[in-house]
Write a structure and sequence with these properties.
Blueprint lengths: L1 H18 L2 H9 L7 H8 L3 H13 L3 E6 L2 E6 L2 H23 L6
Antiparallel strand pairs: 1-2
Helix pairs in contact: 3-4
Length: 109
């Protein structure tokens, strides 16, 4: 029973690691409303295409992002609409507790 709980918590930690990087989080926010190509995302975020592609690969492998191919282009969108809800809920939570997060001794910019 304890092993099963630990496994579940480790899986949950992996999920949150997908959100734990500024670039990956920026990508998720960029495709929140509509699918986009790597080029569109890299231009919007002012990052290299290779950097964005690497992060998209990570996000895709863990199911946070899905891909649709059209001709030569690949379009990226959220892998699950609940990710959009989670991002919105995190904004709501931060509205209430941002001051505490900023003052946390373990918070790093």
């Amino acid at each position: 029973m304890l092993k099963q709980k630990v496994d579940q918590l480790e899986l949950k930690a992996k999920l949150f690691r997908g959100f734990g990087d500024v670039t990956r989080l920026s990508i998720l926010e960029a495709i929140l409303e509509e699918e986009k190509t790597v080029t569109e995302i890299s231009e919007e975020l002012d990052h290299s295409q290779s950097n964005i592609s690497n992060h998209l690969s990570c996000l895709s492998e863990c199911g946070l992002v899905k891909t649709r191919r059209e001709g030569k282009n690949r379009f990226y969108s959220l892998g699950d609409r609940r990710v959009a809800k989670l991002l919105k809920q995190s904004d709501d939570i931060l509205t209430d507790i941002a001051e505490g997060i900023y003052s946390c001794v373990n918070y790093k910019k």
